[in-house]
Amino acid sequence: MISMEKTVSEAIAYRRSTRVYKDIPIDTQKVKQCLVNAALAPTSSNLQLWEFYHVTDKEKLKRLAEACFNQSAAKTAQQLVVIVARKDLWKKRRQANIDFINKAYDKEGLSERDLRRKKMATNYYKKLIPTVYTDFLGILGMIKYGVFQIMGLFKPIYRQARQSDMRIVAHKSAGLAAQNFMISMAAIGYDTCPMEGSDTLRVKRILKLPRGAEINMVIGCGIRDEKGIYGKRFRIPFEEVYFEV
């Protein structure tokens, strides 16, 4: 385990998008442990529709930097991490949750409360998840969307049922994992830069990813060169974005 050197607040304050890194190696195992932390991020329905590609191979780093338009945050990075959204794996991850539930409740003399909880959780993954994720060329999603909008006239209901909506859900979860990773890196004095600017098709080819995989972001990793921090941090005044209701 990594000994975290900074508090959460300190790590958040320390983290900056670093666009130039020093030519100093970083510990692969420490980066990997930060990715273990990434996998502990909250995720929609606990489906964990993500994958993390930790790139240390020099040739692949060079090719990925080119796919990221040779921006300095990629070109000078000692390592790269590619966060991948895998909405296409929902059936496999759904079954993993069902198996976990069955194992957790695999004991004699379960109380009525435990039996109800097991049934509710199992039904969630066996019935609700397929209802939301199953689609065919986007047609089923549009039908479900229309039905849910009508039902929503009479009661609160989940409305985001289109294929595009479920892609957003997968990417939101992947983004939460990416933030866990970057804060963990900051906590041990390592720096990162999340990059959306890339030729995602080329990135997928370099990593040999299947068609259903989607690049969420590429993250440069290393130790900051001071010239790689572009000025003071700017944020919109908090009063403009905070609303107590």
Features:
245 residues; single chain; 4 strands; four-stranded antiparallel β-sheet; alpha+beta; globular; 11% strand; NADH Oxidase
Description:
The chain has helices at about 10-15, 30-40, 60-65, 70-75, 90-105, 110-135, 140-150, 165-185, 200-205, 240, and strands at about 50-55, 80-85, 190-195, 215-220. Helix 2 crosses helix 8 (about 165-185), helix 3 packs antiparallel against helix 9 and helix 5 (about 90-105) runs antiparallel to helix 6. It starts with 7 loop residues before the first helix and ends with a helix. It has about 240 residues and is α+β, with helices and mostly antiparallel strands. About 50% of the residues lie in helices and about 10% in strands. It has a domain at about 10-85 and about 175-230: NADH Oxidase (3-Layer(aba) Sandwich), CATH 3.40.109.10. The model has no long low-confidence stretch (mean pLDDT about 95). The chain has a 4-stranded antiparallel beta sheet, sandwiched between helices.
Assign the CATH architecture of the domain at 8-87 and 176-229: 3-Layer(aba) Sandwich
Q: What portion of the residues fall into strands of 2 or more residues?
A: 5-15%
SSE ordering? HHEHHEHHHHEHEH
For the record, give the distance between the C-alpha atoms at the N and C termini, rounded to a whole number.
41 Å
Which class of the domain at 8-87 and 176-229 in CATH terms? Alpha Beta
Instruction: Estimate the mean pLDDT confidence.
Output: 94
What is the name of the CATH superfamily of the domain at 8-87 and 176-229?
Answer: NADH Oxidase
CATH topology of the domain at 8-87 and 176-229: NADH Oxidase
| Largest sheet geometry | 4 strands, antiparallel
Give the overall silhouette: globular
Coarse structural class: alpha+beta
